[in-house]
Amino acid sequence: MRQSRRKPKKRALKTTVYIICEGKNTEPNYFKRIKEQIEAQTSKYWVLVELVDTDQTDALGLVELARHYKGEYTEVWVVFDKNGYTKHPQAFALAQEEGIQIAFSSISFETWVLLHFEKSQEAFRKSAELVHYLKASGHFPGYDKKAHTDTYPHLAPWLDRAYENAAWLRYLSSKANPDSPIYQLNPYTDVDCLVKKLLNHDQEYIWGVLREELEGQDLGITLHLEEDKARRVHFTLLLKNQGAKACVINPQKQSPLFFVSTSSLCSCLLEELPGAFTLLPKQQETITLKCSAMPRSETCFFVMKWGHTQVMIRL
Q1: What is the mean pLDDT of residues 286-292?
Q2: Mean pLDDT, the chain, whole residue set
Q3: Other beta carbons less than 10 A from residue 204's beta carbon
Q4: Contact yes or no for 222/42 (Cβ under 8 A)
Q5: pLDDT in tens, 108-155
Q6: What is the reported pLDDT for 33?
Q7: Smallest Cα–Cα separation from 28: which of 77, 74, 65?
Q8: Which carries the bigger pLDDT value, residue 58 or residue 265?
Q9: Within a 10 A sphere around the Cβ of 181, how many other Cβ atoms?
C-alpha cells in the first residue's frame, strides 16, 4: 500500500532586526539582554546588536554605517542620544532617505530609564545629571553606565508604565514645540518604539486634550465636554474606526470608559452608558456619556481602552 506523505509545514519567516548602538556599555548591554529574552521565548525575531566605538563616529556616522546593512535585514535601527553627539540634522535626513529607523533620546538614554519610574519633563543638561537623579531619587540606586550594570532585568517589570510615560512625554514635547525637529527637543525619547517592536508588544498610548482630533493605528477620537447647572458632566464622544475590520463596542459589558486623577488613586465609572454597537471600517459614531462624581480637587483624565489602545484626554 502506498503511504501518503505529509506536506511539510511552512516555516514562518523570521523578522531580522539589526541594531547599531552608540557607546560601549549601556545601550548595547540593554538590547543584548532583550535579545536573550527573545531567543529564550520565541523564534520569531532574530536580533543582532552591533557595538560602535563612539570615538570614531558621530550620529551621521552611525546612520552611514547602518546603510550597509539595510538590504540584509528586515529592519535596521540606530540607537543614539544627544549627549555629546553632533550632526543630528544630517543623520535624521539620511535615515529618512534610506529607510533606517532611529531610536533617539535627549538628553541621554537615561531619559528612557527614568520614565520607568515617573513622568518627568525635567530638561537635564547632560547624562551625568540624569544618572545622579536616578540614584538620589531611589529609583535605581545601583545604576551605573559601566559594563557591569544589568539594566534591562531591573526595568522590565515597569515596561508598561514606561510605554505610557514615553507617549505622554512625546505628546507634551511636540505640543510645546510643534515646529521643532526631534533632535532639538529635551526631554524626549522614542526608544519605546524599538523595544515594543522587539518584544512584540502592541500597546498603544494616545494623549490629548478636549476638542482635539486624536488618531491611533485603528482609532480616531474627539471628546467634547459640557457641565449643567447640577454640575453633571456631559461628554460627547466621536469615534472613528480607521482599521480594516469591524469593531463591536459594548460599553455596558466591558466598562472601558472611566476617569482617573493624576495620582491614579481616584477614579469613577461613567453613568448611563450606551448599548452595544458596531463600527464598520471608516465608519464613525457619536455617543453621549454622563458622570456626576468626577473628582474636583485634581486634574483628571478621560481614559478609554480600545483593544490594545489606551486613550488619555486631559479634562
Answers
A1: 84
A2: 85
A3: 18
A4: no
A5: 999 999 999 999 999 999 999 999 999 999 999 999 887 777 899 999
A6: 93
A7: 77
A8: 58
A9: 11
User: Cα–Cα distances in Å, from 119 out to 30, 163, 190?
Assistant: 21, 11, 14
> Residue 6: pLDDT band by 50, 70, 90 thresholds?
very low
Of the candidates 128, 143, 85, 81, the residue with the CA atom closest to the CA atom of residue 108 = 81
Eight-class DSSP state of 47: E
Q: Is 302 helix (H, G, I), strand (E, B) or coil?
A: strand
From the CB of residue 211, how many other CB atoms can be counted at a distance below 10 Å?
A: 10
**DSSP assignment of 255-301, as one string?**
--EEEEETTSS-EEEPBS----EEE-TT-EEEEEEEES---SSS-EE
Q: How far apart are CA 39 and CA 211, in angstroms?
A: 45
* pLDDT of the residue at 295: 67
Residue 200 region by backbone torsions, left for phi larger than 0, else alpha for psi between -120 and 50, else beta = left
Q: What pLDDT, on the 0 to 100 scale, is given for residue 192?
A: 97
- Where does residue 264 fall: left (phi above 0), alpha (psi -120 to 50 degrees), or beta otherwise? left
Q: List the grid coordinates of 305.
A: 481602552
Question: Residue 163: phi, psi to the nearest 5?
Answer: -60, -50
Place of cell 529609583: 139
